[in-house]
């Protein structure tokens, strides 16, 4: 079932996959669409959930509009209201996972928010664990130059999203969680193939820093949990049954 949704004048596409029971709202990653969730949504329905997937603004069939985190959260809230979702579990992948983490900071009544492998990119030398000051600075410069080159030719709307990601302090967001928040990491070595061999050590150093930062947050914040899966960047597509079991386990807690 599809119902028209408008958020701040922007049309937002969403789809109710049917089912009954606990409502689940599914958010895709950057450059993707709600159809990433079709298989997983079918598993949710069979397991007794009611999933609704949506296209984030500027993606899929949703309208093009300036990106900001608050605007994206407003879109999620509009979909939840229009579809009559009661205290939905919010599960997001990559960009959508970051939105889910922000949702957790504003909705203490949410039973669970899940960020599937949404870790962002390095933006400063201090994010390269195990490298001395000079090596970390060089790694940051090279990584930034590579990512900038990778972004050449992309639409300005997508580059705006990337700038917002770079400006977001995810670990501050995690520490602000007001409901249970699960952060799931895939195998970072699978994503390393995006980078040339010369940047592999820099990427590994950034991933080590990310793991350490997340571990510290989990120790400090009882509401935040972490899990790792032997998948690449798309665990909900590569291993949907495993992600479903993970969802079950953490909801039961």
UniProtKB/TrEMBL annotation:
Name of a matching Pfam family: Abhydrolase_6
UniProt xrefs under Gene3D superfamilies: alpha/beta hydrolase
Higher taxonomy: Bacteria, Bacillati, Actinomycetota, Actinomycetes, Streptosporangiales
Record-annotated AB hydrolase-1 domain positions: 24-245
Species, as recorded: Nonomuraea monospora
Name of the molecule in the record: AB hydrolase-1 domain-containing protein
């Amino acid at each position: 079932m599809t119902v028209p949704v408008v958020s701040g004048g922007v049309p937002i596409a969403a789809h109710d996959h049917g089912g009954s029971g606990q409502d689940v709202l599914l958010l895709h990653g950057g450059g993707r669409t709600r159809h990433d969730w079709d298989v997983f949504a079918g598993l949710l329905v069979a397991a007794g959930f009611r999933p609704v997937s949506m296209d984030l603004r500027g993606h899929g069939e949703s309208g093009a509009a300036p990106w900001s985190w608050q605007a994206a959260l407003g879109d999620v809230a509009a979909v939840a209201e229009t579809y009559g979702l009661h205290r939905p579990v919010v599960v997001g992948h990559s960009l959508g996972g970051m939105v889910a983490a922000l949702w957790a900071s504003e909705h203490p009544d949410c039973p669970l928010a899940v960020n599937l492998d949404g870790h962002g990119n390095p933006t400063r030398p201090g994010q390269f664990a195990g490298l001395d000051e000079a090596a970390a600075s060089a790694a940051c410069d090279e990584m930034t130059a590579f990512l900038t080159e990778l972004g050449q030719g992309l639409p300005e709307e997508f580059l705006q999203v990337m700038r917002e990601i770079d400006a977001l302090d995810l670990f501050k967001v995690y520490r602000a969680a007001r409901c249970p928040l699960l952060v799931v990491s895939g195998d970072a070595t699978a994503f390393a193939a995006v980078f040339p061999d010369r940047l592999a050590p820099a990427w590994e150093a950034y991933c080590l820093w990310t793991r350490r930062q997340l571990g510290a947050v989990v120790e400090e914040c009882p509401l935040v949990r972490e899990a790792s899966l032997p998948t690449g960047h798309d665990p909900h597509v590569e291993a949907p049954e495993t992600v479903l079991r993970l969802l079950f386990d953490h909801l039961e807690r």
